[in-house]
Write a structure and sequence with these properties.
CATH architecture: Alpha-Beta Barrel
Strand content: 5-15%
Order of helices and strands: HHHHEHEHEHEHEHEHEHEHH
CATH topology: TIM Barrel
CATH class: Alpha Beta
Bound molecules: dihydroflavine-adenine dinucleotide
Distance between the termini: 21 Å
Strand order of the largest sheet: 1-2-3-4-5-6-7-8
Helix content: 40-55%
Number of helices: 13
Shape: globular
Number of strands: 8
């Protein structure tokens, strides 16, 4: 079976996108994880989630840019998304990656771009979640988040349980009264900054989840791991924390069964809904997380 490392390697070979796209049925298969190439496709997917009692977060796919034109285009895309959310009435907020908004160009420039989105979200009575990227970006991401939180309030951050520093960051952010999305962390990090063992990451995730739930602030617990989900449910029940006081978050197309089950049990569930033309690296990373998904792709290509 193809390995995780091979899939991660392929995810960085952007030129292969055109090769894969000409395979009959391939685009169809990507639709399991990606809502489509434009905002209207994402709205259709989100309407369906909403009907099943699941809220959403728009994610316009892209990776880091060093082009001001690309960063500007991403800002405009998000301003448009916020307008469309209001116009269509779908239940969704937005998630942004700061490297798409110019973090690799200049921190002040990125702050100004992100501010335009958070300010627009405020006007639309909506919320912006700032995704967390690899560890060289953590400090700048937190600085921009804190500045905008103090200015507007309607912005939250992602923290990664695999980083040693996260507990200290979490304490500081809780003291500010801000909302956190807790995840395990998706990047390849060195042992100097991140727990190398999965068991350590899981243990830290549970410890941090408990701190978040006890804080009295509304947070997102982002995982597809049934053990993390069970630990969260158990802790909430033991501590008398209501199902309305936090939400589970999962990626579009991953463990849809679990999302529906949790929503049916009365938990709040949000799906992170990626869309856009730049789907290739995101799609390959989802396959890399669970190489068994490659079977799903091959089976469907065969059918196509
Ligand atoms: P883990 O990887 O341990 O997987 C547990 C189980 O979940 C697997 O055994 C399998 O059953 C299932 N599963 C996981 N991935 C699957 C897949 N692709 N297909 C099918 N089943 C799968 N990271 C980051 O660094 N910065 C960020 O901003 C975000 N944002 C974010 C938002 C949301 C809503 C989610 C759910 C996740 C993120 N992440 C993230 C990614 C996160 O850090 C992590 O890499 C993935 O969620 C995988 O970790 P799990 O907790 O799901 O468990």
């Amino acid at each position: 079976m193809i390995s995780r490392a091979a899939l991660l390697y392929l995810s960085q070979r952007h030129e292969l996108k055109s090769f894969f796209t000409i395979l009959p049925g391939f685009k169809q298969v990507t639709r399991r994880f990606i809502a489509g190439e434009n905002i209207d496709d994402a709205i259709i997917a989100i309407r369906e989630l909403n009907r099943a009692g699941i809220t959403a977060s728009f994610d316009h796919l892209g990776e880091s840019t060093t082009s001001e034109a690309e960063a500007e285009s991403d800002v405009r895309e998000y301003l448009h998304v916020l307008e469309r959310i209001e116009a269509t009435g779908v239940d969704s907020n937005v998630s942004v990656k700061l490297t798409q908004l110019g973090l690799d160009i200049d921190e002040g420039y990125c702050l100004r771009n992100t501010r335009r989105i958070v300010e627009a979200a405020k006007r639309h009575d909506n919320f912006v979640r700032i995704d967390m990227e690899d560890s060289p970006k953590t400090d700048a991401t937190l600085r921009i988040f804190k500045t905008l939180f103090k200015e507007f309030g309607n912005v939250g951050i992602v923290l990664q349980a695999y980083l040693y520093r996260t507990e200290a960051d979490l304490n500081e952010i809780l003291a500010m009264g801000a909302r956190v999305r807790l995840c395990k962390g998706a990047y390849k990090e060195p042992e100097t900054v991140a727990f190398p063992e999965k068991s350590e990451v899981d243990a830290n995730f549970i410890k941090l989840m408990q701190k978040l739930l006890k804080s009295g602030i509304y947070h997102g617990i982002a995982t597809h791991d049934e053990r993390m989900v069970a630990a969260t449910k158990d802790f909430a029940a033991r501590e008398g924390i209501s199902k309305d006081d936090f939400e589970f978050q999962m990626l579009y197309g991953v463990r849809r069964d679990l999302m529906l089950k949790l929503a049916g049990e009365g938990y709040r569930v949000r799906a992170y809904v990626p869309y856009g033309e730049y789907w290739y690296p995101y799609f390959m990373r989802r396959l890399a997380e669970r190489p068994a998904n490659v079977w799903f792709v091959l089976k469907n290509l065969w059918k196509g």
